Fold this protein.
Amino acid sequence: MNLSTNVKPISYLADEVYEKALSLFNILALGQNQIETGLFRSAGDVFADLDKD
């Protein structure tokens, strides 16, 4: 068994990019679920509340 051809180096950078992409997909899925169930406010309502302060 030749270890130099059978063992692949771990790419921590690639793993970090993968984890960040997976996190973004999860956030998008949560947002889509909230939109489908009606758990959101319009941007106009949010900005109107911010203007009150």
Notes: Residues 10-52 form one domain. DSSP finds three helices and no strands in the chain. The first helix runs from residue 3 to 6. The chain has a mean pLDDT of 88.
